[in-house]
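ESCALATION

Customer reports they have been waiting on this structure for their group meeting. Please prioritize. Original submission:
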Amino acid sequence: MKTIKDSVHDHIDVVGVTRDLLDTPAVQRLRHITQLGTARLVYPSANHTRFEHSLGVYHLACGALDSLGIEGVQAERVRAAAILHDVGHSPYSHTIEDLIHRHTGKYHDDVHDLLTESEVGDVLRAHDLDPDTVAGLIAGEGELGQVVSGELDVDRMDYLVRDAHHTGVPYGTIDHERLVRELTFLDGELVLAEGNVQTAESLLVARALMNPTVYNHHVTRISKSMLQRASERLLDAPDVDAEKLRRMDDHDLLVALRTNPDTAEFARRLSDRDLYKRAVWAEMADVPDDVIDADHETVRDHEADIAESAGVDSESVILDVPGRPQMTESSSRVIVNGEVRPLAQQSTLVRALQRVQRDQWRLGVYAPADETEQVGLAAERVLGLATDGTLVSDVRTGVRTTLDDFE
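Update from on-call: job pushed to the front of the queue and completed.
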């Protein structure tokens, strides 16, 4: 047994197949992938990694397995899936995941190839575990897959607490020990036992508060968008393809961006925190549906049209359109009066939080500081934003606040 001191869960005992998996290159690579990507440009202490998080998920999975009474080979598979659940992440965590998917068809939880064709597969087979079965658990397949990837998974429990701890933001605090202890299976579904509606609600409240404060903070979104644009340009280089980009770590990607003439300026801006500014920051009600639902190519066309209309270089415009608000946790199931009910049906708080998500949604258009005014005006014309000529970007007009107040 190996005992590791963790900043969130104190001491974590690592045993069995997990101890052997810990020192594989695929898992050690996670030491060099930051958990929150570019959010550390907002919160300087948010330098925790996917390696720490994976240990935390493993620790909580062990607690869940004990509570559920799962033992033997089944438990060992889940423990392996917990420590390996993030090995498919590309650099800067989720930042360039959509880019990787467009080129490879793989998201971070599609790890069948990584588990079967590497040292990880050798370790799993040495412990009589099938790599494909473990990969399926990581993707949330089967009853036990819900423990690692589902509405009540231990992945979410760890990252909320860990992200709050390392950013210093208190909103992600949840009673993860009670959550783990109260999990149970009913008719093949992972649910929370009787008397835990508020426990389930706490997950949603924490996520709803962490979204605008950390995950979707405007500086996080601007720097994330700049990194996405740079990574997309990098794939035009003859010596970089999507599979190679997928297996880089944060350091590899930054070096690659610095050494490529087409991406070096983006790398400099990210390194120096010389970021683009908000030219538009629009609420959902002000944005046409066809813009909200635009695909990647249409977004790029909009950017080109905005740049042309503003009379600026095409690299000076980044259009950031989030997906429509979703709250998958609302389908979590809880036992109430002996009956399994979806949380959204039982909780009026969930319905309120769904409205909050919509209110928090923002479309962003970003540009260098000295070009935000003309880019903002052009974006309003091109996108047909319903702003009554007031400019969604109050960062330029100073009507309510200034961008620098939040940086």
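Sent to customer with the following note: The radius of gyration is 22 Å.
Escalation resolved.
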